[in-house]
Amino acid sequence: KPDISCDDPADIEYNAIKTWAIDRPDILKTPEGFKRSLELRRDFSRIDAYYIAPSGKKLRTLNEIAAFIEANPKYQDVKLSDFSFTSPKIMEDTIPEDVS
């Protein structure tokens, strides 16, 4: 954000009211037309990453992305290396105590 420094108060404070996760800093920018989506599992064990193709189809693996690109010549310039299924790390101290 412009005109914001580290000395300014945060927009939100870290606490255990919500479950927090930290994404890796090296995740590439999602290719244009695609959306990266993250889903927290009900048991809070991990977060699953997947992509939504421009057609709206959910793509869960690099093989599915490759098949989509091959079937849609409009996206032939999109590289598989632009996609990452690396999931964020869940901050364990913010997982609800009643989760088994």
UniProtKB/TrEMBL annotation:
Subcellular location, record wording: Nucleus
InterPro entries cross-referenced by the UniProt entry: DNA-bd_dom_sf, Methyl_CpG_DNA-bd
Source superkingdom: Eukaryota
Pfam family, one: MBD
Gene3D superfamilies in alphabetical order: Methyl-cpg-binding Protein 2, Chain A (3.30.890.10)
Domain MBD span(s) in chain numbering: 20-90
Keywords recorded for this protein, A-Z: DNA-binding, Nucleus, Transcription, Transcription regulation
GO CC aspect terms: nucleus
GO molecular function, one term: DNA binding
Protein name: MBD domain-containing protein
Originating organism: Salix viminalis
